[in-house]
Each structure stands twice: as C-alpha cells, then as structure tokens.
Write a structure and sequence with these properties.
Shape: globular
Largest sheet: none
Order of helices and strands: HHHHHHHHHHHHHHHHHHH
CATH architecture: Up-down Bundle
Structural class: mainly alpha
Helix content: over 70%
CATH superfamily: MFS general substrate transporter like domains
C-alpha cells in the first residue's frame, strides 16, 4: 500500500501531537517538582541562616555541594536509565530525592545540611540528562529545541509558583513548633515521592510501549527516529569511551559550566539580594518580587526556542540572549541599584537570557549523539557543567563574606556568562558525526 504525501503529513502531525500532549506535560510537572526541591534552599536561607548561625560562605557551600553528589553519580545514572528503562529509573530518582528533601528539614547545623544537600545531589543525579535522553526517544531534531524548552519552562514556572508559596510558608507555617524554613523543605519534598509513584505507573518508556499510539503511529515514529540515528552514526559504532574524549563534547561542557555558574548564582542568591533592597520587606513580599524576573523570562524562553527550531539554528539563538544576561549581571554589580524597579528589570534580563539558552543549547548534542553515546555525552556535559552550580554560589558567598558586598561577585558571575557566550560563538556551525570525528583522532 502506497501512502500519499497528504496521508503521511497527517500521520506525522497526529503522532507528534499525541506524543507532545502525553509526554511533555507529565515530564514538565516532574521537573517543576525537581526545580522546587533543588532551589528551595534559596528561600529557606532567608530565615535558616540566622537560626543556625550560617555565614554567607557556608550558605554558598550548602547550596553548591549538591552538585558534587550530582557529579559523582551522573554518568552511571544516565547509563543505567538507558539500560533499565526511563519509567523505573526516573521513578527511583524521584522517590529517593523526595525522602532526602524531607529529612533535610530536620537538620540542626550547617554540617548536617552539607550532608543532606550532598545526598540530595547524589539521589537526583541523572534526572535532568535522563529526561533529555528520554525526549530523544520521542522527538526528532527539528522539534527538539522547542520540546526541550517547553520541558525546561518548568524551571521558571517552578520559581513563579514556588517563590510566593515559599514566602508564605516562611511567614505563616510554624506547625508543631518547627520553623517555617523546615516546613518549606518538608512540604516541598512530598510531591517528589508522589511523582515517583505516578511515574512508575503512567510513564511509557518508549514509543513501542505507548498505549496512546496506534500501531501505525508507533511504526512512523520508530522509523523516523531510526533514520535520524543512522545519519548520526554515519556508518560507525561509537563506544562510550570514544564519546568521553570527543572534543566537541568538552567544548559544550565548558559552555554549560560557565552558563550554570551564572544560572545558579541567580537561583540561590536572588531572594537574599532582593530582600536586601529594603529591610521592610516580609518574606511573602520577597517571594512575590522574586517571581517577577521569572515571569519576564518565561515567554522569552519559548519564543527563542521556537525561532531556533524554525531556522534549525542553535549558536546565535543561544549566544545572544546569554550576552544580554551577562551585561545585566555586570550592571547589577556596578550600579548596585537601590530602586526595586531597576533591580527587577535587570534580574528579568538575566532570567530571560539564561533560560533562553537551554532549548538551543540542548539541540546541539542531539545533532551528533545517539543511543549509549547520547546517554554518556549528555550526562558528561551535565555532570561536569553542573560543577558551575557549586563554583558560582560558593564564590559569590565567599566574596560577600570577605568584602561585605556582592558587587564584585556579581561582576564575576557576569563575566562567566560572557565567557560562555564567546565559547558558543566559536563553536563550529555543525558537528561531524561522532564516529567520523573519533576516526580522525586515531
């Protein structure tokens, strides 16, 4: 039976629509939960630091040590996901990190928070790159940047929802004699456990397992993805070891490291920097104000990713927004604005620039990685890159601890984003297939 072009186009549109509606909202909600649990320490610090006598430098270490645990188990976790299956492994990740988040609400010292944050990173390792890998099982390259961006809108959405919610908990929830920051960690850990159980029962591992697709739709999506995979492999099998020495992988890792240095400095320090604008602000007010930059960044992120997919162009769509974010951070450091309006506009530019990076950026490794090479490559980029999540917050806290000001620290973070921008711009336009590139190194 010969399928007409019209029938083929209808089949494609129907299959992509079904996969998008069924997969993206589910992983989006899971990532909202992940972002809340990872980032809530930034709001907890508004009262936690004073109660436990934690200095700026110690807080920077508490926020950042998460990424050491993440680093250690990242690559093994992603390879296990590829072998065991997304449904089981993602469910395991969610349940374990939810339990650890709840336990961290009972910490009595900075050192206990060091331990729980490290274990939280260890438990969550592999989650984000695992979801990225999982999305490659469903969506082709021409839809990937927008798909990733829609998934990653969970990060600004988590802060839009979580910021005012966190402020309200800090000010008004003191049940059983426990401080608000403890309830913040406890209450925001519970959804991860529930999400893990739901994942086990509801998330299909591959298109072949999807009950919401017809046999014809399963064949179409599998055939299309296999065709793309053959083009990427370009006639050669690539081992995990070969991926780990691939120059483009390490170039992307450097981009990600310098970008995340800025991103997590924003995430973990913005609540305290906003509260410092006025001693009269309650935690609830701070939560509402912190929500504003994320509201600005969300639509910008979606528009940039759509443009990137439409033009199949990644470098400039990633670099130009990041350049804006770098400039805004430097201005925050140099001007030290006392006006809440100006400060929030600059933070909005930072959020817009950094969030806009993710869709185009994660379209880059998908141009030349597949199968186990994708699992290893994405995990390597993420695990080494995430060490920037330690360097940024810790350095910002250490500089404030030494100088009594965040000015130099914010300029340092802005220069890191500028470095990331330059690294993106010097990246070759299109990657050679990994097999061919490795062969040239022999």
């Amino acid at each position: 039976m010969i399928t007409s072009p019209v029938d083929s186009a209808a089949l494609e549109a129907r299959t992509i629509r079904k996969a998008s509606v069924r997969i993206i909202p589910f992983v989006f909600i899971l990532f909202v939960v992940a972002a809340l649990d990872r980032n809530n320490i930034g709001f907890a610090a508004l009262t936690m630091n004073r109660e436990l006598g934690i200095t700026s430098q110690q807080y920077g270490f508490i926020a950042g040590i998460f990424f050491f645990g993440y680093f250690i188990f990242e690559i093994p976790s992603n390879l296990l996901l590829h072998r065991i299956g997304a449904r089981i492994w993602i469910a395991r990740i969610l349940v374990t990190w939810g339990v650890i988040t709840i336990v961290s609400g009972f910490a009595r010292s900075a050192h206990q928070l060091y331990a729980t944050r490290f274990l939280l990173g260890f438990a969550e390792a592999g989650y984000f790159p695992g979801i990225l890998l999982y999305l490659t099982y469903w969506f082709r390259e021409q839809h990937f940047a927008q798909t990733v961006a829609l998934f990653l809108t969970a990060n600004p959405v988590a802060n839009i929802v979580g910021a005012p919610f966190s402020g309200i908990i800090l000010d008004h929830v003191h049940w059983l004699g426990l401080s608000g920051w403890r309830w913040l960690l406890i209450l925001e850990g519970v959804p991860a456990v529930i999400g893990g159980v739901l994942t086990y029962f509801l998330l299909p591992g591959r298109p072949a397992e999807a009950k919401f697709l017809t046999p014809e739709e399963k064949v179409w999506i599998t055939t299309e993805l296999e065709r793309e995979e053959r083009e990427k492999v370009a006639g050669g099998q690539v081992t995990v070891a070969q991926v780990l020495v691939h120059g483009r992988i390490w170039h992307l890792t450097a981009i990600y490291f310098t970008a995340l240095l800025g991103f997590y400095s924003m995430i973990f320090w913005m609540p305290q920097l906003v509260k410092a604008l006025s001693s009269q602000y309650s935690n609830t007010t701070v939560g509402i104000l912190v929500m504003i930059p994320y509201l600005i960044g969300l639509p910008v992120m979606i528009l940039v990713s759509r443009s990137s997919d439409r033009r199949l162009e990644r470098r400039y769509h990633a670099a130009l927004p990041l350049l804006v974010a770098a400039a805004a951070l430097v201005l925050l450091g140099l001007l030290a604005p006392s006006s809440v309006f100006l400060a929030l506009i600059l933070w909005g530019l930072v959020a817009s620039g950094v969030f806009s990076l993710w869709g185009p950026f994660w379209g880059l490794p998908n141009q030349f990685l597949t199968g186990y090479s994708a699992a290893a490559g994405i995990a390597l980029i993420n695990c080494f890159g995430n060490l920037g999540g330690f360097v940024g917050p810790y350095t910002l806290g250490a500089i404030e601890n030494q100088t009594g000001s965040f000015k130099i620290g914010l300029v340092f973070v802005g220069l890191s984003l500028l470095t990331s921008t330059i690294l993106i711009l010097v990246l070759p336009k299109r990657a050679a297939p990994v097999a061919a590139a490795v062969a040239l190194m022999r």
